[in-house]
Amino acid sequence: LNWSLGTSTPSRPSAMYMGLFVDAPSSDASTGTEVSAGDYLRAPFTFASTITGTTYPTSTIVYNQATSSWGTVVCAGIFDAQTNGNLIAYKNLSASLSIDSGDIPLFLSSSFICSLTSTYNSASLEWVFAIGSPTKPNSVYVGLMTAAPSSYTNTGTEVQTVPAYSRLSCSFSSASTGYVFPTSQKVWNMATASWGTVVAVGI
Predict the structure, then answer these.
(1) pLDDT-derived band of residue 175, with 50, 70 and 90 as boundaries?
(2) How far apart are CA 121 and CA 152, in angstroms?
(3) What SS3 state is found at 146?
């Protein structure tokens, strides 16, 4: 969020690793229980380049062979380091997975599809997941929409053909808990003609 909305320039992850949890986290890795037995290591992988705001691993994610029971895995998490590091994202599995001694866990690339729904969603994904060299936004503006976008490729309908309307420059607070908000109230020009019915806001 800090990178996408221009609030700061945080350190960018340089590699991705998939971790497994027997108790799902609720915010960061400290709130869940990661597998810690039987030759377990987070599995390294890379994400495919994205132009549509959606990305996925470039190949099957394969773990070490379990030398003892790993328990029942209920969640997978994306980290920026093979040990310690930061939990970038996590998702509960559609079905729990019991891993016993001798098993070699793996996940097909199509099992993990990641997406964001923001104006800079492709660049944000590429930055977070260490894909290429995306360009950081220099300025951020807030616009009003009379038809909301349904996806990154469908940009909806913005109020832009009526007098007095223009997007507003916007600065955001720094994100420390996964949330940001504008640093000041946003007030548009007085409408001199109908702007229609606003149903969404775009950044």
Answers:
(1) low
(2) 7
(3) strand
What count of other Cβ atoms lies within 10 Å of the Cβ of residue 113? 11
Do 180 and 172 touch, CB atoms closer than 8 A? yes
Using DSSP's 3-state secondary structure scheme, residue 69 falls into coil
Q: Which position has the token pair 């990178």?
A: 3
Tokens (6 digits) for 50: 């994205």
Tokens 């993990």 found at: 112
Query: Do residues 49 and 131 touch, judged by C-beta distance below 8 A?
Result: yes
How sure is the predictor about 21, in pLDDT bands with cuts at 50, 70 and 90? Answer: very high
Q: Using CA atoms, how far apart are residues 94 and 89, in angstroms rounded to an integer?
A: 16
Torsion-angle region of 39 (φ positive above 0: left; ψ -120 to 50: alpha; else: beta): left
